[in-house]
Amino acid sequence: MPEADYYVLAAADYDSRELFACRLCEKAVEQGLKVHIRVDNDADLNQLDSKLWSFRADSFVPHVKIERDQTSSAPVSLGVQVVPSRQTGLLINLATDTPSDVGEFDRVAEIVSQEEKILTMTRQSFAERRTAGWQVRMNDLRKRG
Asked: How far apart are CA 107 and CA 109, in angstroms?
């Protein structure tokens, strides 16, 4: 059964979502998972590419950019509106829409900011996935100080 984790942040900006995605990605790789991060556009892709190399002073997350229908043996891949069809592991969605097909991924992570468009997408995808039989979890990080 596929799983979806929703991480609800207190912030409303994209940079906070991106930084959280970097940390989540790093943790997943440490646990031996393959990760793909899906973004909306080339500007977001390039910004994330840079941040994965520099978000921590003492480490980085090696990764590759892929295009539609490409796959990679790298532990982390990034793509604009791309969901690799033959990859398992963790899909981190930073795009402002929910992918209609998550391929063979076992788990999807949605990083939720307090931006209205993101909140609307989150409510809809949470309900759809729960109805479809997914195991869904809401992780409210707004309460952490």
From this structure: 7
> How far apart (Å, rounded) are the C-alpha atoms in residues 52 and 60?
6
The residue type of 41 is N
DSSP codes, 71-103: --SSSEEEEES---TT--SEEEE-SSS--S--T
Q: What is the DSSP string of 48-66?
A: HHHHHHHSBTTB----EE-
117: phi then psi, degrees, rounded to nearest 5: -60, -40
pTM of the model: 0.92
Place of tokens 């809401």: 138
Predicted local distance difference test score (pLDDT) of residue 82:
83
Q: In whole angstroms, what is the distance from residue 49 CA to residue 74 CA?
A: 14
Write down all domains in the chain, each with its CATH number in brackets: 3-143 (3.40.50.10110)
- Longest pairwise C-alpha distance within the chain: 42
